[in-house]
């Protein structure tokens, strides 16, 4: 059975692995119904007690699939569920209306009257959207507080992408319970120091900020969109860090795995074990394409986190910026 970790200051304990129902992995969106049923049964049997989705995943297809899948379960088996909304930045004069409409749509697709966690999905400092729209009067957090008071969700979270300094402000504000943090073997900067001239996005040790504020960390993109799991591109990779593309990430992955000892499991397992090694991570979010990928991730959890010595052996690769 999977270990559980505290979910920030919420009082919840969640499984160290979380099912991500997004587009890149795609199993919840693209698989046949029998496979999707088997997936839900297997995660529950393994002890995974959280599923994370978003209205944008498959343009609502992920939420719709989870709606009927979860409806087939006894109430005492239902996992925690989180979803996300993305604001249209051309209509920031109506943040409350946008959020309410998004939440109404998500709950309808999910067939629920509430979710456990509702999250902002816009990157900060991009497309005219910044921290003032999140923490300012009448902004995202004020709007979410009002909806939370109606019992529509229990906790507020956000995806900590975009400008790291603005993400730090939200984390320190006391207004959010959780943050989705990009942290993996290709870009460990959210959890460890990287060179000053790091060539992709430096997330400036955001996990430490979360730990200091008691904010739960949902570790996203543990496979970097699939690059860390498979040397052959699958076509759905979407690099989200600065100055990155699929070819560059593939090159970097090969340099990394040339250093990593082969006894640490498969590529995918080593990636999962890296996320589990950080004490500030509440749960590693898995994007899966097929059932065998779930079994591999469960095997990684059974192996335990990468050791400090193994991670130290990778440090020269990061220190050189994969030179």
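^ Assign residues to that structure.
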């Amino acid at each position: 059975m999977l270990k559980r970790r505290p979910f920030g200051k919420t009082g919840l304990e969640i499984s160290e692995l979380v099912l991500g129902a997004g587009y890149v992995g795609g199993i919840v969106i693209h698989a046949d119904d029998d496979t999707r049923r088997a997936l839900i049964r297997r995660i529950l049997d393994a002890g995974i007690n959280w599923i994370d989705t978003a209205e944008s995943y498959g343009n609502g297809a992920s939420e719709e699939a989870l709606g009927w899948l979860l409806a087939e379960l006894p109430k005492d088996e239902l996992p925690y569920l989180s979803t996300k909304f993305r604001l249209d930045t051309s209509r920031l004069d109506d943040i409350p209306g946008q959020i309410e409409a998004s939440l109404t749509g998500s709950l309808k697709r999910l067939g629920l009257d509430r979710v456990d966690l509702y999250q902002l999905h816009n990157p900060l400092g991009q497309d005219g959207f910044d921290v003032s729209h999140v923490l300012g009067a009448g902004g995202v957090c004020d709007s979410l507080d009002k909806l939370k008071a109606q019992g529509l969700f229990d906790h507020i979270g956000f995806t900590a992408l975009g400008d790291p300094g603005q993400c730090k402000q939200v984390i320190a504000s006391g207004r959010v319970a959780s943050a989705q943090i990009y942290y993996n073997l290709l870009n460990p900067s959210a959890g460890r120091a990287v060179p000053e001239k790091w060539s992709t996005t430096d997330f400036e040790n955001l996990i430490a900020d979360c730990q200091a504020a008691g904010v739960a960390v949902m570790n996203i993109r543990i496979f970097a969109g699939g690059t860390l799991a498979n040397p052959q591109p699958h076509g759905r990779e979407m690099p989200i860090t600065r100055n990155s593309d699929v070819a560059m990430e593939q090159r970097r992955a090969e340099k990394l795995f040339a250093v990593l000892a082969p006894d640490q499991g498969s590529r995918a397992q080593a990636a999962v074990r890296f996320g589990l090694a950080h004490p500030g991570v509440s749960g590693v979010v898995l994007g899966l394409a097929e059932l065998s990928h779930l079994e591999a991730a469960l095997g990684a959890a059974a192996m335990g986190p990468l050791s400090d010595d193994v991670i130290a052996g990778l440090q020269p690769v990061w220190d050189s910026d994969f030179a």
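The mean pLDDT is 95.
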